[in-house]
Amino acid sequence: MEPSSAERNRRISRRRLLGAAATVPAAAGLHSLVSGSGIGGAAQADTPRPVSNGHGGRESFAHATFAPGRTVDHRRNGFDPTEVLRDFDYGKTRRLASGRVLREWEIVAHDKEIEVAPGVNYEAWTYNGRVPGPTLRAREGERLRIRFVNGSEHPHTMHFHGIHPALMDGVPGIGERFGAGQIEPGEAFAYEFEAEPFGLHLYHCHVAPLASHISRGLYGAFVVDPKQGRPEADEMVMVMNGFDTNFDLSNEVYAVNSIGFHYVNEPIRVRRDELVRIYLVNVLEFDPINSFHVHANFFQHYPTGTSLEPSELTDTVIQGQGQRGILELKFPFDGDYMFHAHVSEFAELGWTGFFRVGEPSSMTPAAAAAAYCKLPWGGKRNPV
Ligand SMILES: [Cu+2]
Description:
It is a single chain. The protein is α+β, with helices and mostly antiparallel strands. The chain has helices at residues 5-17, 23-35, 42-45, 74-77, 81-85, 210-215, 262-265, 344-348, 365-372; strands at residues 88-89, 92-95, 101-117, 120-127, 135-139, 143-150, 159-160, 188-194, 199-204, 219-225, 234-243, 253-256, 268-270, 276-282, 289-294, 299-303, 312-314, 316-320, 324-329, 335-340, 352-357. It starts with a helix and ends in a 12-residue tail after the last helix. Residues 156, 205, 207, 213, 218 line the site of copper (II) ion.
């Protein structure tokens, strides 16, 4: 008899727990599992268990799922991290009789298979078909209306970080008789509140089991600009995330903006001496902390972006899930500069990228990353 997907998951987990350092079988098992049918309900079917890191020692190598030189099909995914990086969604605005600005969006949740690493498909749950969802951007004091349509097969919500009434909090059980709370498949609800406080926030689904609904991809950044704005800069958003591709409650792939090593394959182009502003959000599920480190440079850090004065000049920032901050820096020299999680395991499983300043001629970031991310089978093709 064919084992159920939950049973197959348990077998994979057990193999890992037994320390099947045999990285090849584990990787092959992962691949066949994610390629097979019937993985969709696995996270739902499983009773949530205490979250643990689950990584350690040689075992961590069993996660490697990357095939050097191969990239994912962004067109099929419907989003490209190079575009996601500088894509701010301002919605539509109109002026109310009171003179105030009303800013509106429509966000549709639907289930969608996405390729999270070359050849590794994942049944994601998405806002507007992408992971992370759109970066919603407003100005302090505006009235915001987000019409949420649940086109998924599962109940969802949009829970915004910010200051607003309980009814607009996107939490199941609160405001159900007004149509708020949990939004069932086929239903819709309009969240409406003021844009406050200014800073860098996020939104995510808040339906239980929460870890499943978030890790499937239902999150995005939410920027509230201060009334007076911020100095002109080359602005970008980085949502630090990961994917638990075999539903064992730990991640196999780590990234910013979903695709591991994307910014190695396509370094982020910036100009020398130009101010770069990074909106950095951590939504990573299952691992207690994440971090961002940039090489050969320092940045000003504005935690949560709620002050116009930076708190620290540093080169590394640590964030727990839901934490976020604005980073500002300039690159004084041409060249390719690595950035990555200063959790080494995450960096080697996808959370690594490069800034490319100017037109460096002697730099080969892909080669550097290949050396850095040496896979246990010697960097050969993924053995599947
Ligand atoms: Cu959900």
